[in-house]
Amino acid sequence: MGSTNWSKQELLTYLMLYIAHSDLHESRTEYEYLLSRVDAETYGNIKDEFDKDNDYQSISKIVDAVRSKQHYNADLTELFADIKLMAFADGTFDHMENATYNHLKKILS
Q: What is the pLDDT of residues 12-39, one digit of tens each?
């Protein structure tokens, strides 16, 4: 697995896509929320990359990016707040999104 060299914006985009797809569907509301947080070009580039990755590759990239970058300076509070906001973007925090959130919290903490 190659190292990711993402900006904070790109990492946030990839993470939000991962959460949005945790229930196997990115709703229109989730898509609109994502675009309210990141620019369209970043979304497009990261979405292309995300669509090519399997779940293992996605988790590996997320872990690598969070651990190798100083974007969150060892304080993941902001990161988990962003993840939770994405999970609630469509008005629900379903079982799969909750499980994904808890899994990310466990492996990134």
A: 899 989 988 887 777 788 889 899 999 9
Task: Please give the DSSP secondary-structure letter assigned to residue 79.
Answer: H
**Residue ranges per domain, the chain?**
8-108
Which residues contact residue 76 at a Cβ distance below 8 angstroms, ignoring those fewer than 6 apart? 66, 108, 109
- Among 15, 7, 6, CA closest to 59: 15
3-state helix, strand, coil in the chain (%, to 5): 70, 0, 30
C-alpha span between 67 and 89 (Å, rounded): 26
Measuring CA to CA, how many Å separate 97 from each of 22, 29, 72, 84, 91?
A: 6, 15, 22, 9, 12
Q: pTM of this prediction?
A: 0.83
